[in-house]
Amino acid sequence: MALTTLDPVTALIVVDLQQGIVGLPLAHPIEPVIWHARSLADAFRARALPVVLVNVAGSAPGRTEQQRPTGPRPTGWTDLVPELDQLPDDIVVTKRTWGAFASTDLEAQLRARGVTQIVVAGVATGTGVEATARQAYEAGFNVTLACDAMTDSRAEAHDYSIRSVFPRLGETGTSADIMALLPTREDAGHAGA
C-alpha cells in the first residue's frame, strides 16, 4: 500500500453498501467494511468534502454466460445501510451498471464541485468498486482505494483487484491512512472556491 497525497478537493464514493447486498455471503465480515466507510464519510463531511453514496437498482442489458437475477427485487433492496448516516448534502447516485460513472451524471456533479480526486470504498471489490475506479481513472480523476473499506463475495476477486488492478489505477491505503491525509476544512474550502 503506497498512499502519498490527496488533492484539496477529493470526494468519497461509497459503492453499493445497501440492504440487498450487505446480507449476501461475502469474503470478509461486512461490519468492519461498513464501519470504515462510515468513518471515511464522517471525516469527509467534517471537512465539507463531497460524499457520494451509490446504490445499484438493476444491471446493464446484454447477454452474459452467467445467469443474472431477473424479476423485481425485494422491498428495501436498494436502501443504503443506515450506518452510513445519509445526510442531505450527500450526493446519491442510483446505477444500473457495475460502475458509478457509466450512464449517470456523477462525473458532471463532481466536476461542478471542483473535484480532482476520488476515494472509493464499498462492495464488491472486483465489480462495482473496480468498475467505478476504472471509470474515474479513465475520466482523469486521481484515484485512491480504501482497501479496508471494501469486500467481495469472492476472496480471489478481492485479492486480485487489490494486488494487481488497483496499483495501476491509483493508490491504495487504509481508511486511517486516507483520513490522515485529508486536507483541513479551510484548505478544502479554498481549493473549491
From TrEMBL:
Record keyword Hydrolase present: yes
Domain (Isochorismatase-like) ranges: 10-177
Coiled-coil stretches: none
UniProt keyword terms in alphabetical order: Hydrolase
Family matches, as PANTHER family: ISOCHORISMATASE FAMILY PROTEIN YECD, PEROXYUREIDOACRYLATE/UREIDOACRYLATE AMIDOHYDROLASE-RELATED
InterPro entries per record: Isochorismatase-like_dom (IPR000868), Isochorismatase-like_hydrls (IPR050272), Isochorismatase-like_sf (IPR036380)
Single Gene Ontology MF annotation: hydrolase activity
One protein family per Pfam: Isochorismatase
Keyword Hydrolase: yes
Species this protein is from: Gluconacetobacter dulcium
Protein name as annotated: Isochorismatase family protein
